[in-house]
């Protein structure tokens, strides 16, 4: 496992058709408005024991960690929703952008390894929509069968080596308001996680 946690993100937005759940009021955005990405608890179907997102040494927001529960349903579900340092803006595509770069202690590595072994998932939220990971299962059908999973794994194990997902591609789908062409709502939120050994050069 690498000795550093280098978080890098890229964000892409694309138009899409949308629908809304009853009782959920979508937020309307204009071009360039900030879209808040919030983090939820880390979960595992293997252990059924949730952990706070920041129990792992993930990048923290400069303004400090703040509770961000928005509705009664999130409270009843026992969600632990907090703010994040990700900066995403409506209809503004971003290429690779370093979020933070920090060294991992032996204790941090052990915690990540334990979380990966227990198949923990990272859960993010934008406008009450959970971040979903797309998987394509190889079947007899041309192109395979596409499925989605809420959240994405903390990391993976390959040939006995542990890899932290330290790079994400964020794909937001948006819907243009039929009443105001300058207003947009988020209707889809996908995350593609990666593990990268070196994403930026060392500063000299």
Automatic annotation (TrEMBL):
The keyword Electron transport does not apply. Keywords: Membrane, Signal, Transmembrane, Transmembrane helix. InterPro entries: EMP70. It is found in: Membrane. It holds the Pfam family EMP70. Residues 1-18 form the signal peptide. It is a multi-pass membrane protein. The keyword Cell membrane does not apply. One of its GO terms (biological process) is protein localization to membrane. One of its GO terms (cellular component) is membrane. Belongs to the nonaspanin (TM9SF) (TC 9.A.2) family. This is Transmembrane 9 superfamily member.
